[in-house]
Amino acid sequence: MKKWLVTMLLGVVIALGACGNADNDTATENLDPGEEVYRNNCASCHANDLSGRGGPPLVDVGSKYSQDEIAKIVTEGKGSMPPMNVEGQNLEELTNWLSEQ
């Protein structure tokens, strides 16, 4: 009985996971490149709307930090935030977008 229940739950999880990915492709279609980098690297902790989730809100981050300071936080981490593996053009787009928020 337990094996059947675990198998059913696993099937439901896989099915729901597959459904969730279809929306992400169209949701990022019309985003600013910096916002797309943000959603792919930062939104899981700071939320799509910058309101914060596990990490602090970033709603007014552009008024608190310069683009260079934001880049340093992203690449080196700050507090409990680990360094993120965002470099080159992606880092430039991300920090430019965040500095405008």
UniProtKB/TrEMBL annotation:
Residues annotated as signal peptide: 1-18
Pfam families: Cytochrome_CBB3 (PF13442)
Coiled-coil intervals: none
Gene3D superfamilies noted in UniProt: Cytochrome c-like domain
Cytochrome c domain segment(s): 29-101
Keywords (A to Z) from UniProt: Electron transport, Heme, Iron, Metal-binding, Signal, Transport
SUPFAM superfamilies: Cytochrome c (SSF46626)
Protein name: Cytochrome c
Organism: Oceanobacillus kimchii
Gene designation: cccB
